[in-house]
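Risk register update: the risk of archive-format incompatibility is retired. Evidence:
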Amino acid sequence: AKEFHEQFKVTYTAFVGLAALAHLFVIAANPWW
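Archived output:
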């Protein structure tokens, strides 16, 4: 199940990266925050 764990890690990293970008976009769109 090592391949599955590697794939999960890549997917999780991509998800966290997208979430971080989304939060940064919201913060940039709301400078008052």
